[in-house]
């Protein structure tokens, strides 16, 4: 756990034991970067999605971003602009959250540097701006695309991560080389969330036509148009908070994202504020709408940050949109796993649910040089690409 965050939690516990819950709440708010009641911070304004434009940033003029310090929780839902409801949390709830240790799986190091691309590949930094907002992003273009791009994947990092670290940990660039995929790694700003989390729990960022989902959909469409990616080959994949945002995109914008991957994430609509976000992460929460895009879900049975029940809830949301016959397969060698697949009438997989025994809050089969990546277990990146292109 980040030392400053841990110190704040210890101080809050001391204030709680000393009979001053108001001071404890203020300490928690400060640690999470949450505006107190009455402070400014408006939700993103709703509005129609209009395509934006991207500009290339000169690599020589853009220095690499410094590594960010690890935060207490990959899906930490702290954000300065959310509705300030935390002061109304019951004292017992605050104590439960403190005792629960929601940061037990902090990484041993900060974000990893960018992976070196092979000769001929492009690994560029860009900036996108549309009517819903703007984000910087990394673009990966394989060294060779003899048959043109086979698809585009929007890669959504988790909290405390950045695009370079996420690319290193997932090794998705290697998969892109093999499969002929364009990869887009958007970067969440610390202005929007102090820990770099996508704001999956914020009502203003749960609609497909406003907030972060609108920005991400417009970004994906802009890059897909530039590279002539077929419209039915635009996908999104994310880890933890990024996985929760991928679920929102698959729920709200299936006409853009034909398939999504939710790794260690939560279903769309699982929370509406900080209190319900913590509750959902700890115990699980049902999705509020069918997940219309084809969906692959991966979750570890030992995930102590985002409960495995959330992966099961994503499965139920996907099954609501894709009924069909279920097949299961498993492997007991190495790190055991079980996959449940739902196919349509033609045999195409519409939903795949992977439960990986002993996996914590980390990308399965990833590169240990990246944060929140576990080299053991099935290769999540390979399975995601296989599912997307099936």
UniProtKB/TrEMBL annotation:
Please tell me whether the keyword Zinc-finger is annotated for this protein: no
Full protein name: Esterase
Any Pfam family matching the protein:
Esterase_PHB
Q: Which UniProt keywords apply?
A: Hydrolase, Signal
Q: Which Gene3D superfamilies match?
A: alpha/beta hydrolase
List GO terms (cellular component aspect): extracellular region
In its keyword annotation, does this UniProt entry include Calcium? no
């Amino acid at each position: 756990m980040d030392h400053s965050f841990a110190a704040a939690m210890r101080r809050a516990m001391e204030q709680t034991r000393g009979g001053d819950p108001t001071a404890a709440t203020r300490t928690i708010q400060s640690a999470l970067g949450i505006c107190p009641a009455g402070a400014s911070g408006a939700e993103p304004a709703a509005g129609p999605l209009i395509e934006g434009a991207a500009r290339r940033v000169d690599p020589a003029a853009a220095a690499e971003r410094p590594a960010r310090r690890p935060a207490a929780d990959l899906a930490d839902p702290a954000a300065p602009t959310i509705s300030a409801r935390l002061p109304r949390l019951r004292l017992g709830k605050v104590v439960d959250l403190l005792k629960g240790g929601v940061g037990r799986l902090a990484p041993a190091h900060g974000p990893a540097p960018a992976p070196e691309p092979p000769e001929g590949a492009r690994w560029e930094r860009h900036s996108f701006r549309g009517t819903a907002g703007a984000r910087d992003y990394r673009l990966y273009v394989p060294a060779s695309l003899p048959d043109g791009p086979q698809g585009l994947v929007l890669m959504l990092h988790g909290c405390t991560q950045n695009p370079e670290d996420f690319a290193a940990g997932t090794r998705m660039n290697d998969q892109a080389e093999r499969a002929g995929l364009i990869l887009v790694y958007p970067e969440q700003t610390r202005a929007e969330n102090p820990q770099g989390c996508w704001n999956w729990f914020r009502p203003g960022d749960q609609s497909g036509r406003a907030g972060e989902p609108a920005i991400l959909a417009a970004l994906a469409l802009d890059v897909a148009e530039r590279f002539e990616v077929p419209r039915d080959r635009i996908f999104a994949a994310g880890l933890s908070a990024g996985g929760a945002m991928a679920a929102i995109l698959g729920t709200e914008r299936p006409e853009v994202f034909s398939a999504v991957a939710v790794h260690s994430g939560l279903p769309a609509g699982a929370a509406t504020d900080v209190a319900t976000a913590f509750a959902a992460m700890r115990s699980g929460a049902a999705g509020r709408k069918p997940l219309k895009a084809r969906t692959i879900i991966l979750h570890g049975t030992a995930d102590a940050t985002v409960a495995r029940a959330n992966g099961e809830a994503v499965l139920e949301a996907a099954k609501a949109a894709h009924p069909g016959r279920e097949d299961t397969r498993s492997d007991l060698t190495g790190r055991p796993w079980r996959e449940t697949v739902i196919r349509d009438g033609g045999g195409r997989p519409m939903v795949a649910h992977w439960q990986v025994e002993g996996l914590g809050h980390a990308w399965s089969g990833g590169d240990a040089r990246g944060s929140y990546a576990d080299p053991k277990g099935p290769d999540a990146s390979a399975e995601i690409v296989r599912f997307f292109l099936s």
